[in-house]
Records
---
Amino acid sequence: MKKKTFFPALFFLSWIFALVSCASSPKFHGNGDFCGMVVDEKNQPVSEYLITCSKAGGGLCMGSTLTNQSGIFVIQNLSAGKYSLEGHKNNYTELRNLKVDFCFRDKFLCCSVLSADGLFERVNSLIKTGDFDGAKKQLELLCFQRGSQVSQVALCYEAFLYALRKDRRGLQSCLKRIRKTKLAELCKFADEVEELLNGKNTEEK
C-alpha cells in the first residue's frame, strides 16, 4: 500500500517541479514578437496610439506601430534585450522612456496613459494639495493639436499655475500666447488672472 501511494505522489511532485522550472526558465535567445496594450484612466483601450521602441541607452529605433481598436500593439521580430518605449497621441499623455526588459516571448505589457479629461482632473487634484510643480509636470505630458480646444484649456491651466507659483515672467509669456488666440473668452481669462496677481502683489506691499 505504501508503494502505491508513494510513487504517484513522487510523480506528482516531479511534474510540479517541471512546471515551475518551465515558468521560471531563463531568458530566451533570438527574436520574438513583443506585444502590449495601451489603456486610459478608465481602463478603456486607446486606439491609434503611436508606440516607438528603441534600444535602451543607444537610442537606435527598433520599430514603430499604432495600437489597434483594442488598444493592442505588436513590435514584430524583436530580439531579446532591454528597450525603451515612447508613445503619443493627441489628447492623451505621452509615454516617455518606459524601460522594458523583453526576456520572454509571451510577455504582454500594459501601458496606462491619461486622456485630456483625466489629465485635467489629476492637475486639479494636485493643485488642491498645493503640489504646483507636480501639476505642471503632469500638464507637460499632454499631447494636443495647436489651436484645438484641448490646447486652449491646457494654456489656461499653464497660466493659472504660473500665477499660483507667483512666476511673473512665466505668466506674462503665457498670457501673451493666450491673447494671441484673439478669442474673447480666453482674453478675458488672461485679464482676470493678471488683475488677480496684481491685486495680490498690491496687498503684499
---
Amino acid sequence: MKKVFVFCVGGTGIRVMKSITMLMAGGMSTNGYTVVPVILDPHLDLEEKKNLHSLLEAYEEIYKRSINNGNSTLNSLNGFFNSEICTINKLNGISNDTQQNVGSQEKFRSYINVANLDADNINNYLVDTLFSTNNLNNALSVGFKGNPNVGTVVLGDMVEGSDWFKSFKQQCEKDDRVFIISSIFGGTGASGYPLLEKKIRLAQNLPTVSNVMMGAVTVLPYYGLKDPTLSNSDIDSANFYTKTKSALAYYQGSVRSDYLYYVGEKSLKQVYENDEKKQDDKANFIELVAASALFDYLKRERPDRQQFLTRAIENDVESLDLLSLGNGYKDVVKSVADYMLLKALIETLPKERFFPLETNRGFNNDFYKDVSFQSLVKFTEMYYKWYGELAQNKRAFAPLNYDDYNQMSGWIKRYDLEAKDYSYYELQMIKASNEDKSKEHSNKFRFFLQFAYEAINHYTQKINR
C-alpha cells in the first residue's frame, strides 16, 4: 500500500486532522493512499487530542468492518469510508505516544539544565538573550505558549531518536508521501514544521526518506483569544500577526516542501477563551479549508519547482453556502451533505417496518443492534457535533438545511434536490440492492454503506458538475 504520513503539529494540526477524517468518512478520496496520522503535541491531558484519538479509532473500526470478508479482505468501498487510516504505532507495533518523552511537568529551565551553569558562565547571558523568565519557568506539559524559540529546542529532541520517528523512517517507502499540518502564529506549529521538514530531508543514508515528496499546509491567524490578563495566560493574540510576519520571513528562505499551502482569515473573526490547558475550541471553517489541502495534494504529481498555493471564497459573507463558497468547494459540500443524508437514513431505517431490504439483505433489528451498525451510529454522533460547530462558528460553514426529513428538497441551501423526503433514498437503496448480484461477500454492513452511498449519490452527484 502507498501511504501518506500526515504530521499533525500542535493544536491546529489536531483540529485539521479531525476535519480530514470527517471528509474521508463523507466519501472524499485520498487517491489510493493510506493516511498515517502522526500527532505531535506536548500536552499530556489535552482533551481535543484524546478526542482525535477516539475519532481515529472509530473510523478505523468502521473501515475494517467494511472490508472484512471472514478470512479474506475486500477492496475498499466507493463512497463512505473509502480510504484507510492507520496510526503510526500500528505500522510496526510500537506503543509509545509521540509526545510522552517531552510531555511532563518539568520546567523548561530544568530541561536545558540551566541550574548546571556556574554563576559566572558566559552561557547564562546567551540563555537570558534567547529565553524570557516566563519561558524558562513554563512546564513542558502545556506546550510552548506561542514561543517557537522554546518549541524548536524541545521538538528537536522530541523527533530525533524517538521510536515513532524511527518507525516513520523504517516504514517510508517508494511512492509514499509526507504532509505536515501546522499553524504559523503559535509555538508548537511555527517551530515544528520547519524543524520536522529538516529532520526528514537530512535523514542520512535513507534516500527514500530524504527525497520523499512533501507537502504542507501552514495556517495563518484565524481566531483570537480573550484578554490574557483575565486568565493569567502568557499568550496574547494581539501578537499573532507579528509572529506570523517573522515566521513567514524565516520560511521564505528555509522551507523546501514541494507544495506549500497557505490558509487563513483576513481578520480574527472568532474569539475563544484563553485557556491554555483546556483549549476547547469549536470546529472552524479555516480548519476545513486546511483539511481540503491534503486531498488536493494527493492528486498532484511531483513538481519541477516548489509550488505555493492558497484558495479563496466567492463572497466574503459571515455564513457560507454552496454559492458563496464558490465552485472550488463543491466536493467539500457534497461530502458533508452526503454524510448528513446518511445520518438521516441511519435514524429512519431502523424505524421502517415495511422496508423490503429487511428480507432481501437482512437489515433487520438484529443488524441494527449489531456492533458494526452501532459503531457507525457513534461515529455519526461525533460527525453531527462537528458539523454543528462549523455551522455556528464565525465564519460559519453552513451549506445545509438538515433537520427536517420531510422537506429534503432544500437539504442543500440554494440547490434543489429531486428527493423530497427520506423515502426517495430508501427507494434508491432498494434499487441498488436489486441490481447488485455480487457473490463475492456476505458482509451486511458493507452492503448497507454501499447501497446508502449509491442511493444518496444518485441525487447529489450533480453538485460536482
---
Amino acid sequence: MNTDRIFAEAIANEYAPKNTSKVVALKKLDRKAKRKANIFTYAFGIVMTLVLGVGMCLSMGVLGNGGPGAMIVGIAVGVIGFVGMGANYPVYQKLLESGKRKYAFEIVQLAKEISEAAE
C-alpha cells in the first residue's frame, strides 16, 4: 500500500465539499455523542485545577493568615483538587461511552447508508 496516497486522500476528503447531507448529519451525530463528555471534562478539570491552586496558596501562606491551621486546610483542599483531577479522565470515559452507546444505532445506520451509496 502506498501510505502517501492514503494520507493525501484523507486530507483531500477533509477539504472536499460535502454534497450529501448524510455526511453532515453523521458528523453532527458524532459531535452530539461526544459533546456532554467534553463539556463536563473541561469544566470539571478547570474547577479542580483552581481548587488545587487555592489549596497551594493556603498552604504557602499567600492566602489566609499563614499559620499552621491554614497550611493544614490548604493541604486538604489541595488533595481534593488532586483527587478531582485524577477522577476527571475516568469520568470522561464513562460519559463518552454513555454518549456513544446512546447514538450508536443512528450513527452505524447512517454510516452504512453512506458507504452503500459510495459503492
---
Amino acid sequence: MKVVLLIDHFGAGGAQRQMAGLACLLKERGVDVSVYTYFSYNFYVEQLKQSGVPYEVVKGAESHWRRFFYLRKKLLAAQPDWVVAYLDTPCIMASLVNWLGGKFRLIVSERNTTQTLTRRERLKFWLYRKADYIVPNSYSQGDFVCKHFPQHKAKTVVIPNFVDLDKFACATERHRQQPAVILVVASIWASKNTKGFIDAVRLLRQHRNDFVVKWFGRDLRSTIPKNTAYAQECQRKIKEYGLEDTVFLYPKTKQIAEEYRKADYFCLPSFYEGTPNVLCEAMASSLPVICSRVCDNPKYVFEGENGFLFDPYDVKDMAAKLDEALQLSEALHAGYGRCSRAIAEEKMSEQVFVDRYLSLLRAPHDGQAE
C-alpha cells in the first residue's frame, strides 16, 4: 500500500504536528508513506528525516495560481493507492485532482471547527463527494458535517489527535511553585482570545499576585498584518495594565515539553478549537487544565476532576475560574494532574490514533472500515 500525505507546509502548527506524527507512525507499521508540501517551512521536517519518511516540497506549487497544476502532476506521477490531505487548501487540491483524473482513494481531514458556512465551505464539501472518508479531528466538527451535509454522514469518521505519552510526561509528583506558573501554548491572534485573557489576568491581579503567566506562541516570522497588529496590541495592553512582571509572551519553541513540566497549570482561552494538540500535551504532562467551554474541550476537561471550564466571552468568568484553580489545595492540585494524565492515556494514545487510520486505509472499496 502506497500512501501520500499532503499538507501546506511543516511549520509549527497543530495540523502539521499531527501529520508528521501520522507519517512516522505509518512508517513504523510498514506502510510505504511519503509527504508532499508546497511551502518550505521546516519545523517538523527533522522528525520525518529521523523516521526515514520521504519528504518533498513540490516546486512551482507555492504559486497560488499554478498550485493545482503542479500538485496534479506530482500526485498522478506518484500513483499512490491513497492520499491523505490535511487543511482546507490541500484537501480541495487533492479533491480536484481526484475529480480530474486521479486514480487514488482519498481521505480529507477537517482540522478545526467550522464557524461560518461560506461559499468556499460549501464548495469544499461538494468536492468531498469524491473522497472515501472525511476525518474531522473533533466530535464537534463531525456533528457539523453530519448536520449540514447529511449525504456525507456514512463516510465521516472522527479521529481525535494523539499525543506522545512518553515525550509529554511528568516523571515526579507535581508540587506547586510560588508563584504558580500558568502556561498557555497558542498562537497570538484573535481566535485564541489573547486580549480577553490579558483582561482576565488584570481582574485577577486586583486581589492576588501569587502567579505568573508564560504564553508561548509569538510568531517572529509572521507576514500577516492583522496577526502582527494583534500581537502588538496585546503587548501594549500588558504594558498599559502594568502586567510586565506577570504576563510573558514568548516565541514558539521546540522545547515545549520541558515548559509543561515546569508549569503548575495549563490554560487555553480560545473562542473555538478542534481537538487542541496543546490540551492533549498538557494533560499528558499531568497538568490541571483551565480552558474555554467550547467544542470538544468538555469531552476531556471535567470540573471537579481535572480542570475548570469558562465562557471565553466572559472575562469575569475566566478570571473566576483562574482564581478557583489557584485556590486548590496541594493535594487536590496533584489529584487533578493525575486525572489529566489518566484521561490522556485512555483517549489520546498514538496506538489508538494510527490504528483508526489504518482501519480506513485497509477498508474495502465499499467504504466500510474493517
